[in-house]
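Question:
Write out your own:
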Amino acid sequence: MRNFIRHPSDIPIEIHHAGLASPQEQPLRDIGVGGLSLQLDHSLEKGALVDIKIPISKPPFETKAQVVWCEQNGQQFNIGVEFNEEKEAFRARMVEQVCYIQRYKKEIAEREGRLLDGREAAQEWIAKYAKDFPGGVNE
């Protein structure tokens, strides 16, 4: 059972574990206050420590996390990891907002044909959605 709300994302992340031959880059399935989930071709044991890198921000978000669940899904495995420190969870919230802003920028380009730069997209997203974002301006 989840201890926190998760939010979907399609941002690529890199995960490294001693059991993997090389770092794996996979799309992020979702990210939330305490952790994230992704899909791998290999299973990872519950309790395993992994290195996570999300290159969408500058500098990239990098942290260590612990595998808290692993479920087989066909020939792949859905993996859930939890951040080990509260400050990492806070940093992940910032990355989560960047993910939402990137998605918003892409949706506006597809839906309205407007090409926003990062600052414009951030300003619009904050004005429209920040108040509803957990930990946002009203909390």
User: Anything to note?
Assistant: The chain has two helices and seven strands.
